[in-house]
Amino acid sequence: ARSSHLQLAAFALGTVGWILCTISMGIVEWRVWHVDNTTIISSGIAWVGIWKVCFISYLHVSPGYKEQFCHKFSGYDSSIPHEIYAAQGLLLIAMFMGLLGVTATIFALRNVYMGVTRKTLITHFFLAGGCFYILAGLCVLIPVSWNFYSVTHNQSIAFPPSYYMPSSPAAQEAGAAIPIGIVAVILLLLSGTFSLSYRFPATANTITK
Questions:
Q1: What distance lies between CA 116 and its chain's CA centroid?
Q2: pTM confidence score
Q3: Do 140 and 129 meet the contact criterion of CB atoms below 8 Å apart?
Q4: Residue 83 · residue 150 · CB < 8 Å
Q5: Three-state SS string across the chain, please?
Q6: What digits encode the pLDDT tens for the residues 129-160?
Q7: Which CATH number among 3.20.20.140, 1.10.1670.10, 1.20.140.150, 1.25.40.10 corresponds to the domain 1-197?
Q8: What is the C-alpha separation between 132 and 138, in angstroms, rounded?
Q9: In this structure, are strands 171-174 and 67-72 parallel, antiparallel, or unpaired?
Q10: What is the pLDDT of residues 21-51, one digit of tens each?
């Protein structure tokens, strides 16, 4: 067990990274759009996520109350940029890969702390867990980087009329999902590196299978 401190840290970091990956996938604040026309978008701010777009509107609402209007993206909306659809698929893959990494690491640590001395069994599960963590981190890195690039270049989106969104913002900035995704990438890649660094103690009485 003394040889697996880094792998215990890998489990902790990988678990937090997987949770942050799930959070970034679920929240809508990927891009924050600032718009000049506040007729419909009353607050002048709209949030563009990877699953839907949302904004606050005071239309058709009693005075003093506000309503959040959201429109989910459809697979038939050809105007939605590729980085949004890519983020949907890659983050789902990352969530699955991260879960496999956590599971493999738990199984390997269980064998280590229970005194199981099957070298191949333990090392293979740490190796699998490390690969799953790194794949998950890369699957998060691609959409986060791609969407951040779109934000920094103030790229527009030709939304259909039913979205009540302008085709381009006056300005836009990265929402909370992007820094959360960046932290998830760092933690997942670190946990993968720690898992892959495991070396079975040479002095142990091993049973190799």
A1: 34
A2: 0.83
A3: no
A4: yes
A5: CHHHHHHHHHHHHHHHHHHHHHHHHHCCCCEEEECCCCCCCCCCEEEECCCEEEEEECCCCCCCCCEEEEEECCCCCCCCCHHHHHHHHHHHHHHHHHHHHHHHHHHHHHHHHCCCCCHHHHHHHHHHHHHHHHHHHHHHHHHHHHHHHHHHCCCCCCCCHHHCCCCCCCEEEECCHHHHHHHHHHHHHHHHHHHHCCCCCCCCCCCCC
A6: 999 999 999 999 999 999 999 999 988 888 88
A7: 1.20.140.150
A8: 10
A9: unpaired
A10: 999 999 999 999 998 887 788 888 999 999 9
Amino acid sitting at position 9 = A
Q: How far apart are CA 45 and CA 37, in angstroms?
A: 10
Q: Copy the structure tokens of residue 20.
A: 């942050």
Give the residue extent of every domain in the chain.
Answer: 1-197
Phi, psi of 197 (to 5 degrees): -85, 0
